[in-house]
Design a protein that fits this description.
elongated, 5-stranded mixed beta sheet, 164 residues, 10 strands, 2 domains
Amino acid sequence: MATPSSASSGYRERLLPGWWVWLVAGGLVVMVAVAYGAALGAPVGWATLIVGAALAAAVIWTSAPVVSVTADGLRAGDALLPLTAVGRVRIVDRDGIASLRGPGADARLYVVVRASAAPSGLLVHIEDDDDPHPAWLVSSRHPDRIAAALTATMEPTHSPRVEE
């Protein structure tokens, strides 16, 4: 879910999973509620359905990482990459993400990839010799918007080079 930019944020997106994850979670909750309802009565079944649905939605929502660009930097999940450390930015598609995570991949990459949430993403190279990660691989439904927000937020002398 992408939101429009504001004065304090260039871009913000929560990597919620696809519809099928919600459907599977809902199906599991319904199955448990029907089982409890059959065994212990309809009121228990309805209570189980309501509580289970709320818990499933809360778990899915809170476990979905947020990707944002602010004046502080690029945030992916709990990590923050300062704008001064942002180097080249490459937009990658589903196949690009698969090759960056597949056999022979660099294990030092910082990865925030949710395949069920977004088919594409960004590879952000890091220009900081002290950072243990050479780059960040981040999922996004709109990687071009993140790249544009990074370019707009950074100083003109240190704008990232965006590669398609």
